[in-house]
Amino acid sequence: MLRLTDLREILHYVPRFRDRVFVISIDGAVVADENFQNILLDIHLLRSLRIGVALVHGAGLQIRHLAESSKLSLTNSDGIGITDRTTLEVSMTAANRVSHEILEGLSAHDLRGATGNAIVAHPAGILGGIDQQFTGRVERVDTQMIRALLEHDIIPVIPPLGCDGDRRTYRLNSDVVAVEVARALQAVKLIYLAAHEPLRRNSRVLRSLSIDDATTTLQQGRDQISPAEAVSKLENAMRAVRGGVPRVHIIDGRVEMGLLSEVFSNEGIGTLIHANEYESIRMAQHKDVKAVFDLVSRGMQAEELLKRPKADIERTIKSFFVYEVDRTIVSCGAIHLYPEDNMAELATVYVSERYENQGIGGKMIRFAEDVARQMRYEQVFCLSTQAINYFVQKGGFSLGSPENLPKSRRETYDRSGRKSQVLIKKLQAVAGE
After folding, report:
1. Measured by CB atoms within 10 angstroms of the end CB, which terminus of the chain is less buried, N or C?
2. CA–CA distance, 322 with 350 (Å, rounded to integer)
3. pLDDT of 6 higher than 70
4. How many domains does the chain contain in total?
C-alpha cells in the first residue's frame, strides 16, 4: 500500500524527471519472474507522471531454455563471444518471444508498445584472431524512430538484436544495447533490472558510486565484486556515465516496488553510479530544514546525536552545511563558532545509511575545517559518544577533556549529562599566508 510519505517523496522527484526519458533494461530472467507484473505497474505509474520510458530487454534465460528443449548446442547465450548460425536462430526466436511477452504485458496494463529495427548493427568481426560470426556491435541507434514512438505515447521495446540493412541480423548484448540507447536518447536515467542481488565489494553492499569510485572499485579487483554477473553491468554503467548519462541504477528486478523505491527515494535498494559533478557540499539554506531534520532525527533515534526539536534546527540552519548527491541531501553537519576562544565546533554530523563507508564523513570534516581555517580559527573540536575512533583514526582528532572546551560550551556540556568524549584538532594555516 502506498503511504502518504511515499507519495510526498515521489512528488519531490517528479518535476526533475517530467518529460525526460528513462531507459529501462530488463534481463530475460526478470521478464520470467513473477514480479514482472509489478514492474509493468511501475512503468504505468512512470508514464502517468509524463516520464518517457524505452525498454531494452535481454533473453539469456529464454535462449538457454529453448536450446535445452530443442537439444541444441549454443556458442553463447548473452551476446558476448562467438555466435554461430544455430545460436543466432535460437536467439532470434527467444528474443522475439520475450518482446511479444512484454508487448502483451503492456497491453494488459493499458499501455501501448511497439518493437522495430531501431538498432543498426555490424559484425563484431575478428577478435583475437577468432571470427565472432553473428555476434554484432551497435553501429547506430535510430533515435528518430524511438522518439516518434515516445511522442505518440508508445513505449519502444528493443530486443538484443540488430540489423545491418543488408538482410543480416546479429546477436547483441542487452547491457550494451541499453547504454547506446540511453546515450542516443540523452536519457536522464539508465536502469538495469537484473536477476541478482545488490552489488557487493567483499561483504559490503555498494549503494552509491561516483564514476571515480566505480573505477577504483574495479581496479581493486573484479574478483572482489559479487555477484560475478554484476561486473558486466557495472562496467557498462561506467560507459554510460562517461557517455553523458547522468545516473545509472543497478537493482534487483525481482523485488516488489524495487523500481519505484530506487527512483523515487533517497534510500533506494540498488546501486547508483553517477557523474562526479552530482556531488557537492554547500552551506544549508532555509529550504533544507526538513531534509536536515530528517537526517538528524535518524541520528537521534540511534542515540548518536543529541535530541533536539525541529524548531532548533530551523533557528540554527545557517550554521549547517549539507552534502548532496544528485541534488539530494545525504549528509549534514554544523559549525558553531567561539571567537573568544578562537575555536570552532564541528557538530551534528550524520551520513545517511545508504551512503555510509564512502568517504563522505571525511569530506564533511575537511569542509568544516576549511571554513574554520578561512575564518582564522586555530582549533576545531567535536563531541562524540559512538564515533570516537572514527574522528581519531580518520579525522586526525586527539582525545581531549571537558576542560578544553570554551567556557560557554562547557556549561551546555555539563547540563546535557551525555558525558561525550571531547576531541580536539589543531588547524594548520592556509598555505601562502
Report:
1. N
2. 10
3. no
4. 2
